[in-house]
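Sample entry follows:

:::
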Amino acid sequence: MELTAEEIRVLGCLIEKEATTPDHYPLSTNALTNACNQKTSREPVVAFPERVVSETMLLIRQAGLARTITSGRSQKHRHILDEVLDVGPEQLAVLAIMMLRGPQTPGELRTRTERYVGFDSVERVDAVLAGLAGREEPLVVDLGRAPGQSQNRWAHLLGGEASLGDPGSWSGNGGDVDNAAEATAAGPTLAERVRDLEERLAALESALGLGDGTPD
């Protein structure tokens, strides 16, 4: 499976909203666009026009990864990625966080999946990652430790090897996402600073016996 960055963002948002706001799921095109362009819990932050989201949904439906329900003039979208990949809630939650926020450590995944599922330990996250990596066609890969980090980082492989590249490298849709790429040009520096602070706080909390993760 080699999804584009836009397809990964749209699917990740559908998974997230199904778990965190079930009363408003499936999502309308407008709600899905807002989810894609959300400024929190996203890396990179983008600014997709609604037309790009609609066109991306069409491609995802054609690939058999999502469905759209039409009622009157409104359309509601839902993913079926769990059915296609044969994954459970824990595996889906871990994939979604990496789809929306890039490579993550097990500690980050445990903290950031709290609204999806409840992992009782980092070791449980490790086990889920090992299962996803050990499939006949692996869905995640261990990237090793980044400078200043105490845990290895993991990335999804839903975009093939492209998943491991620059998170700002969007395939583009007729130039409509050019502004999004420009808007995120300064993002990684801030994101790396935030990640470094999270890792330091996590290490401090671990040393003090206060927990394994940090607040999102």
